[in-house]
Amino acid sequence: MRGLIRSVLERDPRIEVVAEAGGASEARDAVNAHQPHVMTLDIEMPSMSGLEFLDRLMRHRPMPVVMVSTLTKAGSAIAIEALAKGAVECVQKPTIGQSGAPFAGLADILVAAANARVKLPTSMAPPRPVSQSGRKFQRMCLLGGSTGAVDAIERILARFPSDCPPTLITQHMPEPFLASFAARLNPIVAPTVRLARDGDELRHGEVLIAPGGAYHLNMQPGFGRRVSLLEGPKVSGHRPSVDSMFQSACHLGDQVVAGILTGMGRDGAEGMADLRSKGAITLGQSRESCVVFGMPRMAGEMDGVDQWVDLDAFGDALLKAAETPVGAKPR
């Protein structure tokens, strides 16, 4: 697997492979000797797991790390934990019979990751509420993110009460990772968090995550609050796509609060601008708090952002905006 990764990366003129390691001790020595800008790290290694090595690395020499994982249920769960511990991105190992070139796009991910702001995750606060907030949330929340957004979403939902606004999330990850992400979130935050199903009705206290795979997570046309899983090609280079979700909610206009989080590329920028033009309240994660200020930057350049918000304040800002009466803008 290391040989395959090296052969893919050495074909890219933007990247110099300075070392490779077969285990944790070799990796430690290589990091100290070569001071690389970014590293790939396998979940499965002899003597010490990739997750344990990542934990030690982030404590002693924080740097951008891209995890390499299998798409098994166990591998996906560990990958999500790695992203929550500070890994920038996770890519899947090629499988027998896989269509397309193995590790396609890995070079682009590493180049972007090398410039990422590595932030050590903090313990989530406040503790899980035991009762409802009693606040009157009049708008639904739509959130989109990519690189670095696993930790961001955890920290945002940690601020949500058990009667939070109906919330949809599209996060760029392979299908098994998304299932593990929902399973990780549900027991540690107050709202109910699960993968969306076709025809689900949006309810207060529920957070629905795009299941990915062959599907985009969209709002159904009309005036109801139901979702559709739309099978189709990639939109803005992704499936699930943030643009697809945002644009499907444009008919709801001022019933929506939309947030765009850290991530590479431009997915969500056009949809965010469209939502804002229809009366939605739109929030962008600030440059200073992003791991990769790609998606929010593009949304801002398209005049799609009402307000820039640091990550630590993002959850509360979403809740405040969701309380804003339909037809009004927050002060």
TrEMBL record:
GO terms for biological process: chemotaxis. Keywords: Chemotaxis, Cytoplasm, Hydrolase, Phosphoprotein. Its EC number is 3.1.1.61. GO terms for molecular function: phosphorelay response regulator activity; protein-glutamate methylesterase activity. The modification 4-aspartylphosphate is found at residue 42. One of its GO terms (cellular component) is cytoplasm. Gene3D superfamilies: 3.40.50.2300, Methylesterase CheB, C-terminal domain (3.40.50.180). CDD domains: CheB_Rec, REC_CheB-like. The keyword Cell cycle does not apply. Residues 1-108 form the Response regulatory domain. This is protein-glutamate methylesterase.
